[in-house]
Design goal:
- The protein contains six helices and 33 strands.
- About 2% of the residues have low confidence.
- The termini are far apart.
- It has a 23-stranded mixed sheet that branches. The protein has an eight-stranded mixed sheet with strand order 11-14-17-20-23-26-29-30. The protein has a two-stranded antiparallel sheet with strand order 8-9.
- 21% of the residues lie in helices and 42% in strands.
- The protein has two domains: 137 residues, no CATH class; 262 residues, Pectate Lyase C-like (3 Solenoid).
- By secondary structure, it is an alpha/beta fold.
- The longest helix is centred in the N-terminal third of the chain and has 52 residues.
């Protein structure tokens, strides 16, 4: 019996024809599928913008129109939409807050920046009442090119830590909105180290998070200026300088200027630590904040200056100052839970000329403590206002209890309306 095998493969011509057919089908279908996907994304983004507009409208009936973009972020966040909602999933689309009509618009750069969704028609032409939220320098550049000389507002709404770390040290002034879903890993300190940088981080009450918990090492500034607004910041990590390694939530040093405004800060060792360089002139301003820790609230050293207004510190040691530092307390509430209110350490042989004496100036505030001050070295506290363990400052420091609440050999003197405690 003869076994015939008549099987044969495709010829080259047949293969070319099949490939050509596939290419033609792909050329026809891929744009169609892309169009379908884009329409679906636009539909989802439109619904999201519509929902956020509902939140804006509801808030407006109670509180009036928001004053700025920061208020808008806070309003929609309270309705359950974090900052990433301002960055649409559709490529080339932007969410715009139109201030005059108080509504969010969906704008499509693929259609010459046409408004493809608005909840109402009463919005103006692009001008300084338009606020774009973008999460990359590329998007910002695209908007600048598209609108050129038109005075629109382009707000950086950053949703990942790499974008934030990469942006924060650019020259010049910047305002950066930070998403509450931002994840700071243990090796990703937000470090401002450019003397030409002037950065404002706007959190709108959001937290820096690490794996669902408060960040381990959130903020450190060594050069330049940093302002942090309305953040929840906590730390269990470590920062290192020439004096060693220490645990803190917020660190500052060198020739930096740091402002904390409306923040809630929690540290394991120190809530805020800084100004430890002999050749530095670091300054920190703390306004409307809450500081707490297992040890020190504010630790400040060589040449550093701190000013506190309407701030609440509740921990074993609210203040530790050394080597020519200056602390100015304008107002607020300060509670020493176990140790002392103010610990001062100085070594005049190491302090620079003109700053031989660490000084704490208290102009107001409410202070509660067992031990008020511990002195180590030449230092002074000057008090011109405030209440101390419930008593007026002049009345309290005229008592024997005040003398017992001060250790280290310092003496109290009262002249007119000024109390000076010095060694």
């Amino acid at each position: 019996m003869i076994n015939r095998n008549n099987k044969k493969g495709f010829t080259i011509v047949e293969l070319v024809i099949v490939i050509a057919v596939i290419v033609i089908l792909a050329a026809v279908l891929i744009p169609t599928f892309s169009g379908i996907i884009r329409k679906a994304n636009i539909s989802a983004d439109t619904q999201l913008v519509k929902n956020m507009n509902t939140a804006l409208a509801a808030d407006e009936t109670v509180n009036g129109k928001p004053e700025d973009f920061n208020d808008v972020i806070a309003i929609v966040r309270d309705a359950g939409y974090i900052l990433s909602a301002f960055n649409p999933t559709t490529e080339g689309c932007y969410v715009v807050w139109e201030k005059e009509s108080n509504q969010l618009l969906l704008v499509d750069s693929k259609k010459d920046f046409e408004v493809i969704y608005s909840v109402k028609d009463g919005y103006g032409e692009p001008d300084n009442s338009w606020y774009f939220a973008v999460d990359s320098e590329e998007a910002k550049a695209e908007l600048k090119e598209a609108y050129k000389d038109i005075a629109i507002n382009i707000e950086m709404a950053l949703t990942n830590v790499d974008a934030l770390v990469g942006t924060i040290n650019k020259d010049g002034a910047q305002e950066l909105y930070v998403d509450e879903s931002l994840v700071i890993s243990a090796d990703k300190v937000i470090d401002v180290n450019n003397e030409n940088a002037s950065v404002t981080l706007k959190f709108s009450g959001a937290s820096l998070t690490t794996d669902g918990t408060i960040a381990k090492i959130p903020l450190n500034v060594t050069k330049g200026q940093l302002t942090v607004e309305d953040a929840v910041i906590g730390g269990a990590g470590e920062l290192t300088n020439e004096h060693g390694t220490f645990s803190t939530a917020v660190g500052f040093d060198g020739n930096s200027k740091l402002t904390l405004d409306g923040c809630n800060i929690r540290g394991t060792g120190n809530a805020v630590s800084g100004a430890n360089k002999i050749d530095g002139t670091a300054e920190i301003t703390i306004i409307d904040c809450t500081l707490s820790s297992d040890n020190v609230g504010l630790q400040i050293a060589t040449w550093g200056t701190a000013t506190l207004t309407n701030t609440n510190i509740d921990c074993p040691n609210p203040f530790f100052a050394s080597f020519g530092a200056v602390i100015n307390v304008e107002s607020g509430k300060y509670n020493s839970t176990s140790d002392c209110m103010i610990e001062i350490y100085d070594n005049t042989s190491k302090a620079p000329e003109g700053r031989k004496c660490t000084t704490v100036n208290i102009k107001g505030g409410d202070f509660t403590f067992n031990t008020f001050a511990k002195f180590n070295g030449s230092s002074k506290i000057v008090i011109t206002g405030g209440t101390f363990n419930g008593a007026n400052y002049l009345e309290y420091f005229a008592t024997e209890a005040a003398k017992a609440a001060i250790t280290g050999g310092a003496t109290i003197s009262i002249s007119g309306n000024t109390v000076t405690i010095s060694k």
